[in-house]
């Protein structure tokens, strides 16, 4: 082959190698950029970086979740949770704050209520806002109304006229006991149990007529009962869930802004339709109120 031909061939080969190298480099950059943002299976909306948060881990929103509550946090462990109402709420917070990750941090409920637990930015854990708790920690504006659902055996007749004649089960330490005693005034004092499974067992055994517990939780129990149980109504107790932050957190105002923004733009309504209604079998806010 003539020398000119060899030179031309070498030049073409060099150009091809250069282009290939550039393509590989750009692909790597694109892949890195894509992988840098992780919000699980959530759809994030709003303006990225519109709110400023000061986080314990740069670029990451560290959140204390609660396990074992499908619809809110879908998964059995922090490593497996990638969606759910509260997870995707956190993802939208992170995105709108210009962050690229949501990290789930394990802390006990008792720890975060002390106001001294560290290593997280916010707890989104279905926490009811109360005055005693507000003395120790700060709460965001409410993002969910936590009424008390009335769970009974299917076919049990319940209306405002017979509320006082029912035998109720409540969990120890909850506000349901005081509400029933003071507002419903049943002929028989409510039976107090240490945990929800014990209440459900008592209902199945006929020891009580109704379990009174957070509406989303009893809806889930009814859905998984194969028709044996139903939620006939709820007591509008005025309880609300808020995000929890320590007293020294610099982010309370920013979190409030994020929550109010998601209320106004329909994000919470979309999350309810996507995660709560299918998982719970009904929208908790649409369960009829049976206040005495």
Automatic annotation (TrEMBL):
Residues 1-35 form the signal peptide. SMART domains: PBPb (SM00062). InterPro entries: Solute-binding_3/MltF_N. Keywords: Signal. Residues 66-279 form the Solute-binding protein family 3/N-terminal domain. The keyword Signal applies. It comes from the Bacteria. This is ABC transporter substrate-binding protein.
